[in-house]
Amino acid sequence: MTLTLRDLGEHDLAWVAAREQDIFGPAAWSESLIRDDWYYGGKRYRGAEWDGELVGYAIYGYDGDAFHLMNLAVVPEARRRGVARAFMEEFIEEARRERAADAWLEVAVTNEAAIALYREYGFEDVRIRPRYYQPENVDALVMRARLLPARG
Question: What is the reported pTM?
Answer without folding.
Answer: 0.84
